[in-house]
Amino acid sequence: MQVNAALRRPLVPALLGLTLLAGGCKSLDTLGTELSGKRTYESVPARFVEVADQRRLPDAGGGSMAALAASLQKPSGASARSLDGRDPLPPGTRELAGAEPLQRYANQVLARLLKAWPHAKPSVTIVVTNNPAYVAEAVPASTILISQGVFVNSENEDELAFILAHEVSHLLLNHMDADREHAAQKTVEDTGMGTLLSAAPRSNPEMARNAALIYTTYRTFQDTVAHPSWARQQEDEADLLGFDLLEKAGYNTNVFQVVMERFADDARKQSAKAEEERKKLEDQINGLMASGQYSAGINAAFKELSAGPSKILGEIGKQLRVGHNSAEQRFADLSAYAVREQLFESAARDKNTVGYEKAVFQGTALKALSRSVLVQRADSLIAKERLAEAEAALKEVAKGGFESDPYLRITYYRLHTKQNRPDLAVKDLEVAVKSSSAPPEAFDLLIAEQRAAGRASQALAALDAKERRFGGSERGYPLRIRLLVEAGRMPEAGSVVERCRAVRGPVVRECEDAWSQATVASLSPPR
Question: Which residues are within 8 A (CB) of 77 and not within 5 positions of it... i.e. 6 or more apart?
């Protein structure tokens, strides 16, 4: 009878009360600030470092909410290898073998930054991971994970210092405990609601459904709006404190612009990749329909259509869950903060580029970096027209019998193209395609180079090799037609056109266009 009476009471006030008791008011306050348009730096009237200790979050480890959540959770299995016997590394994280020189260097930079922290200094462990991406992360046990990609893509010590300053700021402000508190709150709420629903009277299933719907709405709001808003404020605070530590340590603070540009570039690449996947699916559906396979085409289309709403909601959820503001917004906020505090001098300080190059790209530190990230660095140097440095990096990668690595040869191809050495560039691609691990890109580049040089027969040979390796000869019909015409092999080109017509679908129009354009071009008098 007591359970029935409890279920008859409105559930929303009870859930909101539970949230407030669990500290959810912090999230709601933060959300209110965010919705009002007020930026985090505007809530601090002076230098953030001067008030940072007041904004430090309380320890949650011994709190009642954490203890209650721990008692409700099922015992977990064996944990992953840990750094200190208590907290495991995040799943999939691997330390970079032989990275001790890089770790020592990062520790020196961190020690310089922490001199500017006027309060008790934590003992921080830095782990260099084998991740080639440009990423760093603060994790429990006062640990900072920093990828080898950060070392390779950074251009000076100041940039590395900004990234470390941001991550150590999370530790100084105790943001790790805030994450634990939110996780504990969710465990308690989910368990409590589960208990209520399991005890609901079977005679009133509608009441149980309504209760479940109300709670699901509340949980969605917490997970996709309130908590991410709280997380975004934490990231803003880490940006501000990191900026202050960087400035007080004597580094060039203007490097935050480069870091934000790198983040924005990565976001654009991810967006382009998603659009490419969408286009591939669209082409597949159109191809099936045009070739007369209506059933398969309709099924694929309806499957995509039915998944549409959930995909849209999923994308919205991803955006709302993002723990950082956009790179552009973070750049604007830090710029406004620097202007307000009149921190102009620090942006003109000399950057430590020479010392950085020596610490990262010479001696034992260089040997720890994997070949893939060094090739990545060489690509970056080529794009910046720093060709001599790029060539030195590639020579380092080639040591130890890796001269035939296809990705290395493709990068050499880009270098030799920039150096206006076309013969070497083509030889690079010819070496690359001989490897069993050569990507389709290597073949495509070789075909384009041979064709541009008027060597249609050699381009056809490269196309043959690509199709033997990867298949897809039907998709290659239009290009094959053009190359056969350019090589003067008209009867063979006509045969390919006929084979293409039998395939049906969008490729038929492409084949017809290729035949028309190639034959017209072949009849045109030379200029």
Answer: none
Q: Give the DSSP letter string of 257-307.
A: HHHHHHHHHHHHHHHHHHHHHHHHHHHHHHHHHHTT-HHHHHHHHHHHHHH
Strand bridging mode 125-129 / 136-139 = unpaired
Expressed in angstroms, the distance from the first to the final Cα of the chain is: 97
* Token code pair at residue 187: 């465990």
Partners of 136 in the β-ladder: 146
C-beta of residue 129 within 8 angstroms of C-beta of residue 145: yes
Which of 185, 218, 242, 266 minimizes the C-alpha distance to 21?
A: 185
Q: Copy the structure tokens of residue 231.
A: 């997380």
Is the pTM value of this prediction over 0.70? Answer: no
Looking at residue 136, its amino acid is A
Q: Which residues pair with 127 in a beta bridge?
A: 145
Retrieve residue 129's tokens: 């991971």
**Residue 95 per-residue DSSP state:** B
DSSP readout, 313-357? HHHHHHHHH-SS--HHHHHHHHHHHHHHTT--GGGGSPP--HHHH
Residue 418 CB burial class (10 angstroms; 0-12, 13-18, ≥19): middle
Residues 6+ positions from 105 with CB-CB distance below 8 Å: 359, 360, 365
Q: Which residues of 461-490 are buried (b: 16+ CB within 10 A; e: fewer)?
A: ebbebbbeeeeeeeebbbbbbbbbbbbebe
Token pair 């501000």: residue = 240
Instruction: Please report, as a single letter, which amino acid is at residue 451.
Output: R
Residue with tokens 């009237």: 45
Choose among 25, 105, 7, 110: nearest CA to 366: 105
Q: 282 CB contacts (<8 Å, ≥6 apart)? A: none
DSSP 120: P
Q: Which of 39-48, 125-134, 180-189 has the lowest mean pLDDT?
A: 180-189
Q: What is the pLDDT of residues 427-480, one digit of tens each?
A: 999 999 999 889 899 999 999 999 999 999 999 999 999 999 988 788 899 999
Distance CA 499, CA 505 (A): 12
Which residue has tokens 């709601």? Answer: 28
d(C-alpha 380, C-alpha 258), whole Å: 14
Question: Nearest CA to 41 among 334, 407, 474, 412?
Answer: 334
Which stretches of 33-162 are assigned E, i.e. beta strand? 125-129, 136-139, 143-147
pLDDT band at 293 (very low <50, low <70, confident <90, very high): low
> Up-side HSE of residue 39: CA atoms within 13 Å toward CB?
16
Q: Report the chain's C-alpha Rg in angstroms.
A: 30
DSSP conformation letters of 366-378: HHHS-HHHHHHHH
Q: What is the DSSP letter of 474?
A: T
Report the distance separating Cα 491 and Cα 472, nearest Å: 22
How many other C-beta atoms lie within 10 A of the C-beta of residue 438?
24
